[in-house]
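Board notes, transcribed. Complex of a protein with coenzyme A.
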Amino acid sequence: MTGQPSIDGNEELLVRAAGPEDLAAITGLINKAFQVERFFLGSDRIRADEVRARIAQGTFLLLLSGGTLLGCVYAELRGTSGFIGLLSVEPQRQKAGFSRVLMTAAEDYFRRNGCRQAELRVVNLRIELPPYYRHLGYREIATEELPAEIARILPCHLIVMTKALV
Ligand SMILES: CC(C)(COP(=O)(O)OP(=O)(O)OC[C@H]1O[C@@H](n2cnc3c(N)ncnc32)[C@H](O)[C@@H]1OP(=O)(O)O)[C@@H](O)C(=O)NCCC(=O)NCCS
């Protein structure tokens, strides 16, 4: 999957699917972006072996400028539903529209593969995230326990959000 979206015309952007050679860069980017969750995770968000498993199971879409990784998102086909996770933008490049490029790429990938909805989960302690995802067309539909394999140092739960893909 490739494309060359450009936000302001000054930067040539490329979206492509990750391969095993991107493992270290993806792991580093996610853990840098998810520092914001350290107050309840108490540790890094993800290990390299977990990223490797996801590359094998689904698709990481990468957003690059030149050779520089600006962001990534995990997209997995689950029947008619597309699962989105681990959306990350390089902290120094946030608030510039890059996550919208990644989310649009993930949703387009789902549509091309027959999905009728996209779904994602946010931790309830991140109160800024539901308004952000609502802005992108998602709505809260349920709550869930955090998976047992994710360590946490504060009580928290997940909020499930979905968007119809038309
Ligand atoms: C969340 C995150 C991905 C957002 O990335 P970003 O590149 O800064 O976001 P963008 O600049 O692309 O914003 C996309 C849109 O959302 C809007 N937006 C951003 N924050 C918002 C908020 N709190 N409420 C409502 N809208 C918001 C922006 O104004 C923009 O709108 P527009 O495209 O209509 O102009 C980024 O902050 C990040 O990597 N955070 C750490 C990891 C994380 O929390 N991931 C999500 C876990 S579920």
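Residues 98-112 form the longest helix (15 residues). The mean pLDDT is 94.
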